[in-house]
Write a structure and sequence with these properties.
This protein is of the alpha+beta class. Helices cover about 25% and strands about 35% of the residues. It has helices spanning about 20-30, 80-90, 100-110, 150-165, and strands at about 10-15, 35, 40-45, 50, 55-65, 65-75, 90-100, 115-120, 125-130, 140-145. The protein has a ten-stranded mixed beta sheet, sandwiched between helices. The N and C termini lie far apart (about 50 Å).
């Protein structure tokens, strides 16, 4: 019997200009608002087994029940994002799935011949892993460590999208001190 993942909830795109991509998704396609992390900081990062800390900016917004992630890499540090941009140009790079057990899911994928290519741990301790599943012109797979904090963050963004008036493409993040 094979294990099934929970459904894909995120589609992620590597872009060359994050602000232009946000404007396109928000004002042409109606997704948003976007929550932006400029020059994301990671506690740990490795690409193909070697430590590499890419300089990336990220934007997260919703279109209905689907999370849209936009990624711009600012440097030439090896990463799955730069690999994709160099080989294909901008476009859909990965799909995201929540993982309740990263180790077990990584082992299951390895048993199926699917290799982990990149691992990132953000400063809050949330880990994501990228797997080489680009079969038949598809996208990579990102497993996102499920946690109450991760669920709360995505729920917050989705609720913001449901209340969004369509005007400001970039959302203000509330002050954590307030």
């Amino acid at each position: 019997m094979s294990k099934r993942f929970d459904g894909v909830f995120q589609f992620a795109y590597v872009v060359e200009d994050l602000d232009a991509a946000i404007e396109h998704w928000a004002h042409t396609l109606g997704a948003g608002p976007f929550f932006v992390i400029r020059h994301a900081r990671y506690a740990a990062a490795e690409h193909r087994g070697e430590a590499h800390m890419p300089d990336v900016s990220l934007a997260f917004g919703y279109s209905g029940d689907v999370n849209i992630e936009l990624i711009q890499q600012h440097d030439d540090t090896p990463s799955v994002f730069l690999d994709f941009l160099k080989s294909r140009g901008p476009g859909q790079q990965h799909v995201g799935i929540m993982s309740r057990d990263l180790e077990a899911d990584t082992e299951m994928l390895a048993a199926r011949g699917v290799a982990m290519v990149q691992r990132l741990v953000n400063e809050s301790g949330v880990e994501t892993r990228f797997f080489d599943t680009e079969l038949h012109g598809g996208a990579m797979l990102e497993l996102i460590q499920a946690s109450p904090e991760t669920a709360a963050a995505f729920s917050f963004m989705k609720a913001a999208a449901e209340q969004w008036d369509g005007v400001d493409a970039i959302a203000s993040v509330p002050d954590a001190e307030a």
